[in-house]
Amino acid sequence: MARVYQECIAVSATDDSPLARKTFRIETRFDSVTGDRVVLWRDILRVCEHAKYIMDGSAVIPFMTDSSLEDRTPLRFKHRPDTTVRIVAKKPNLTNSAGQETSSAGTNGPKEANAGQAETTSTSGKGQDQQASADDSGDSNNSDNSDSDSDSDSDSDSGNSKPDIRTLLCFLMELRRELRALDAMESGATPQEIDEIDSEYQKRINELQGNQQGLFRLQKKAKRIQKAWRDELKLLRQKREQLQKLYKNRPQSNQKPKEPEKTEDDGSQLERKLAQLQKTVDQLNKKVEEMEGGKKVLVVNL
């Protein structure tokens, strides 16, 4: 099967001006389900490592979105013969020189394995080894460069989030699956055996992505619990401040309260006055006795 390439050119995101003088070509893949020739985003990234999205007329097609990660389907677009696709990129430099062809080694799932086998059987085993080694070296260089670029462009490009370790692991698993499929083709494996290899690696990728979604759910739950704890801690601090204010404003005198004065009732007051009056009468009787020569003139007994 003859190889078909898609003509592309890197343009600026600000004024849509070309960033390179020449165009570059991307090898298309055959989709056995739809029967169309398609271009995958990762094949474009192998050549234009700073690419961000595709300009389809006035519409923008991002390379990687959350929906494509959840569906586990790599972004692609249909081959457009006699058309130069505009690739909006951050920087003008390309992995390969402008105008140079690039080949997409490997397959993407069971539906592309047969097409990959048909294309690779027409070439020699030596050429396949050289192509696979060149793609592997290009992939390792591009992954290193893309990691450094994601750190530098994270502030300026808010639409593309920085990939985590599980996303990178899934991408590496896909590369390993493609290499295993190529080795199986070279050794003369049947399409059924290649499909078994693809299904085995796809199962591992699905497990990684399932664990990733579970991790996201746990992180959201932990954030909610942490927020509830912070709110409760804030309320406790407010109550503590209120208690401290009440403690500072308490009465400072340590004196004992005065005992109420004892008041005499009317009976006790009358008895005291009668006692004083009796004492006065006794004194008067004594004086009268002295004056009258011992005769009592006035005797009063109270």
TrEMBL record:
The lineage of its organism: Eukaryota, Fungi, Fungi incertae sedis, Mucoromycota, Mortierellomycotina. Residues 127-145 have a biased composition (Low complexity). This is Uncharacterized protein. Residues 74-164, 242-272 are annotated as: Disordered. Residues 93-107, 117-126 have a biased composition (Polar residues). It comes from the Eukaryota. Residues 146-156 have a biased composition (Acidic residues).
